[in-house]
Design a protein that fits this description.
70% helix, 23 helices, mainly alpha
Length: 488
């Protein structure tokens, strides 16, 4: 007798209980409804989203530090790590410049600001000051200097990813130089700390639906849906350009690695939906690092390329800035020449690199671009105040996918990608397993859910064995350690 088929209601309840994607999707829809019906509750629910972002940010710096140090130590080759960094910067520059150019071309073709005939003297330029908190974008020298840590504790306390990366590279290089025999306890301690951090991430991620609900109630309640009508053409154009850019990224990913971007989107749908709902890519960085590592990318490549991309590879922001600049010019009746548009690209190539972590950075970059052109009133930037928050979702998802594609592409370029495992993972042949749930249930026993993870560990160990000869040749033992909980 065949087993009874669960009813639709039971299946729906089971999905809501077990699927983070379903929980976040429901929270997203519910947040829109509540924000639309009761807009006065916007500030009431805002702390749900803000609190979640704060909790995730507490673990990002130590996680990046552990992953990068362990990755360098296991790779056993500091020159390879340097090549990964250089190739990542090349990829970032090409991708972000392409995003700027595509945005400018689209804005010229579709002219989202034409016909508005806005008088810039009637715009409230002081509102831009409030949005940016009176700040400014760093110069090139300041940006480079700020990337260097002034103190080890300060880099973590200020959550400065670039400073943490520099510190991690120095520690990883020191471990390689000293060797396993002189500092035998450091690497195992960092590996264990990494496991603890991933366990914390697992706990915090259970709050993701509440965070998305609170963020969406605040967005819809605070800004309303009317802004979509006012800026409909601009919003539609930015999202369409972002979609076209992601198609191009998908083609590039297929050509370089043979992997499908659509399958990767399906593989990371929970993280993408969470980033979309909270309008923050930082909330999903820890989980993305887990998924990229389990999808065959080597630890050092993931640890270096993904966090660096958060400062250097803002593809979504580049699209928004290029389209927004032409939108403002068209709205106030200024026709930019080809030479002036080239200036827009050059200015934005520089200003977009220092945007991460600066309040109102998009408006600072737009103001700097307007000042460089000399023909667009800087106060006209206030035109985008009403639509900026709506654009966050486009920027976040495009930035995030752009950085993930960069991890795969640079890893493949450097030979640090297990393409076969990546293909199996994206096809669903290997299941993703939370890294904080990898301990065996009993001595000598391996559950069905854990089997893919142990296979993943074995495969990662095999990939690191190739560096053993290099390490041994300079008197260092291979820095690979299996945790005790695999034995039960």
């Amino acid at each position: 007798m065949p087993p009874p088929v669960p009813s639709l209601q039971r299946r729906a309840v089971h999905m809501l209980r077990t699927s983070l994607f379903a929980q976040v999707a429901c929270a997203l829809v519910l947040g829109i409804v509540v924000g639309r019906l009761w807009p006065d509750t916007a500030t009431t629910f805002q702390p749900l989203g803000d609190g979640f972002v704060r909790l995730i940010k507490t673990v990002i710096a130590p996680l990046v530090f552990c992953v990068v140090v362990v990755g360098i130590a296991k790779a056993g080759n500091l020159k390879a790590f340097g090549r990964i960094g250089l190739k990542a910067l090349i990829w970032f520059e090409v991708a972000s410049t392409a995003a700027l150019v595509i945005g400018l071309v689209a804005a010229n073709v579709f002219s989202p600001g034409s016909g508005m005939n806005v008088d810039p003297s009637k715009l409230d330029a002081s509102a831009v000051e409030g949005k940016t908190a009176g700040g400014s974008l760093p110069s090139t020298g300041e940006f480079v200097l700020e990337a260097l840590p002034q103190s080890a504790v300060g880099a973590f306390a200020e959550n400065s990813l670039l400073q943490v990366l520099v510190l991690a590279c120095l520690v990883g290089a020191a471990l390689l130089h000293l060797g396993h025999t002189k500092v035998p306890a450091i690497l195992p301690a960092l590996e264990q700390a990494q496991e603890v951090i991933f366990a914390i991430v697992g706990f915090v991620m259970r709050l993701a639906p509440l965070a998305v609900f609170g963020a969406m109630v605040h967005l819809v309640g605070e800004y309303g849906l009317g802004v979509i009508e006012t800026y409909g053409k601009l919003i539609a154009l930015c999202y369409a350009v972002a979609a076209f850019f992601l198609v191009l990224l998908g083609v590039a990913l297929k050509l370089v690695t043979g992997l499908s971007l659509w399958k990767f989107v399906r593989y990371t749908r929970e993280e993408l939906l969470l980033a979309l709902g909270t309008a923050s890519s930082e909330t999903v960085m820890p989980r993305m690092m887990q998924k990229l590592r389990q999808a065959g990318a080597r630890d050092d490549a993931v640890g270096l390329v993904l966090p660096t991309g958060y400062s250097f590879n803002l593809d979504g922001a580049s699209i928004y800035l290029s389209v927004g600049t032409l939108f403002i010019a068209q709205a106030v009746g200024v026709d930019l020449s080809i030479g002036q548009q080239v200036t827009v690209i050059l200015v934005l190539m520089l200003t977009s690199k220092g945007m991460a972590g600066v309040p109102g950075s998009a408006f600072l970059a737009l103001s700097a671009t307007a000042s460089a052109l000399g023909v667009v009133p800087a106060g006209a930037v206030a035109l985008l105040l009403g639509v900026d928050r709506i654009m966050d979702s486009m920027r976040v998802v495009t930035n995030l996918l752009g950085n993930c594609v960069a991890v795969f592409a640079v890893s493949r370029w450097e030979g640090a990608l297990d393409t076969e495992r990546a293909r199996k993972m994206l096809d669903g042949e290997i299941a993703f397993v939370e890294e904080d749930t990898e301990s065996a249930p009993a001595a000598g026993a391996v559950s069905d859910a854990e089997a893919p993870t142990q296979t993943h560990r074995a495969e990662r160990t095999e990939r690191t064995e190739g560096t053993a000869d290099v390490t041994a040749s300079v008197g260092k033992a291979p820095m690979v350690k299996e945790t005790a909980d695999e034995a039960g």
